[in-house]
Amino acid sequence: AAAKGTPPKEVKRPTMRESKVPFKGPKLDAFEFLSTQIGELNQQIADLGKDATQFKRKSSAFVLFRKQLAAHMAAQTVLDYHPFSMNTVSLDVNPDDVIWGNLNLNPYDRSIRGYISLGITVGLVIVWSLLTAALTTLVSIQNLKKLPGLKDMTDSPFLGIFTGIIPAVLVAVVMALLPIILRLLLRLEGTPRKSEIELRLLNRFYFFQVWNVYLITIFTSSILTIAANGFNDPSSIIKLVPEKVPESATPILTYILLLAFTGAAKEILQMTSLALRYILPILFAKTPRKICAAEAPSEFDWGTTIPTHSLIFLMGFSYSFVSPIVNCFAAVYFGLFYLIYR
């Protein structure tokens, strides 16, 4: 409370410019300008709503129900027997979750986009498979010595560490670029909600990781060797499997450790979120609502985090029979993330 005789300080009202171009136009009182704008827009909406026939029909609609049970019953009902007619229904839609630009797509256009996206995804699988195979096979001491100028290279502990860590780092970098491309493809397909993109990304990214990081690593490290030797002597396959398959655990162990420590450190530090939390309010947030939005905690990345955890579990479970040491590294990985999430 203000002391007696001390005049209260005048609260500084926020200001803004009408132009979208920075620093162009005079400063206006934000409360008065926006209140006028809201009143004019509400009147415009009321006038336009009196005659709905003047608008062209869109490919999507929002339906409100008085009871939640009625909404769920309607969503489970066959609304139209014609193909591609009202075949996608979403419940409990949050306006912030809607991708408004994808609501007016023609069903056939959406279907064609889906096939194009599927074809590009298959192409990405092939390209990423070649990249992963090259990274896991070429970066080795034996293959490096085949390059010109490196024939006389001597074995050293540093070189062993280099050839053990670099492939895992390169694979992790390559896989980190993939979700960006997949999210763009899912958006171009016409997916109407951001949460649906994350759910579909979860499935695709998990398939990509299992194929490129896990299966390609095993094939390039052990299966090809077993197949080449077993072709001449099929009876040797039984002996080669327990010898060669555990050898492919080395790049998998390196990959698990890399994700364990770098991923855990990134989750603890959260440098990007921390920087944005302090920088955004200073530069852009001038009103209480914008400050609240800028300081909101970051969302959990379901589309990439869950597939990675599932991949590590798959690696640990499958290799627990042929190379039990993988379980120790998987336990370190899940132990670190358990502490972080707690």
Radius of gyration: 29 Å
Q: What portion of residues is helical?
A: 55-70%
Strand content: under 5%
Protein structure class: mainly alpha
* Parts with pLDDT < 50 across at least 5 consecutive residues: none
Shape: extended
Q: Enumerate how many helices there are, as a single number.
A: 12
- How far is the first residue's CA from the last residue's CA? 42 Å
Tell me, rounded to a whole number, the average pLDDT.
Answer: 79
The overall strand count is: 2
Strand order of the largest sheet: 1-2
Largest sheet report: 2 strands, antiparallel
Order of helices and strands: EEHHHHHHHHHHHH
Protein name: Phosphate metabolism protein 7
Please describe the topology of this protein.
Blueprint: E1 15-17, E2 27-29, H1 30-48, H2 68-75, H3 107-138, H4 141-144, H5 157-188, H6 194-232, H7 237-244, H8 249-269, H9 271-283, H10 288-294, H11 302-319, H12 325-341
Antiparallel strand pairs: 1-2
Task: Tell me what the structure shows.
- This is Phosphate metabolism protein 7.
- It comes from Coemansia nantahalensis.
- By secondary structure, this protein is mainly alpha-helical.
- The protein is built from twelve helices and two strands; from the N terminus they run ββαααααααααααα.
- A two-stranded antiparallel sheet has the order 1-2.
- The chain is extended, with a radius of gyration of 29 Å.
- The protein starts with 14 loop residues before the first strand and ends with a helix.
Short characterization:
This is Phosphate metabolism protein 7. This protein is mostly helical and 342 residues long.
